[in-house]
Amino acid sequence: MSLNISEFKQVVSNFATGVVVITATTPDGPVGFTCQTFGSLSLEPLLAYFTAQTGGSSWPRIKGAESIGISILSQAQEQLALQFAASGKDKFSGIEWNAGPGGAPLLDGALAHVEGTLQSITTHGDHEIAVLEVTYGMVNKVNKANTSETMPLLYFHGTFGLPA
């Protein structure tokens, strides 16, 4: 029995993932994209990873940046995730951000930020896995009140959030 793309997507949509925005500063200005495959990889050295579509327009511009930022989104930032997922427009329009210590844009209101330097890229099918050496990390919101601003934005069954 073979599995087609649609069936595979249906299967893996049963695994909830967090949502982040990957960013960098380029000579043409800030660039970024929404990503749902991100995680810590190693504690010694401090490494994180994310994946990017090989055919995307933002990722090729980010690859050459000195520093890459990762903003871990809250439930209240669904519109932000959608804005950075769209192609063909200025994704930073109306977005507030600050440069991290390495210069990467870090989005205001995120639960946490990571910044690092690209260590390696490997291609697997239509995606690349990027490994970052983490140089900075900051928790911005503590999950004490369990509000949409302090809970992570999740992607599940092809949409944001979990079923009620």
How many independent structural domains?
Answer: 1
Task: Give the averaged pLDDT, no decimals.
Answer: 93
Kindly report the CATH topology.
Answer: Pnp Oxidase, Chain A
Number of helices: 3
- CATH superfamily, please? Electron Transport, Fmn-binding Protein, Chain A
What is the CATH domain class? Mainly Beta
What is the 3D form? globular
- Strand order across the largest sheet: 3-2-6-9-10-5-4
Beta fraction = 35-45%
Instruction: Return Rg in Å.
Output: 16 Å
Largest sheet: 7 strands, antiparallel
CATH architecture assignment name:
Roll
What does this 3D model show about the protein?
The protein has 3 helices and 12 strands; from the N terminus they run H-E-E-E-E-E-H-E-H-E-E-E-E-E-E. By secondary structure, the chain is mainly β. It has a 7-stranded antiparallel β-sheet. Strands 1-11-12 form a 3-stranded antiparallel β-sheet, with no helix packed on it. It has a two-stranded antiparallel sheet with strand order 7-8. Strand 2 and strand 3 form a beta hairpin. The chain starts with a helix and ends with a strand.
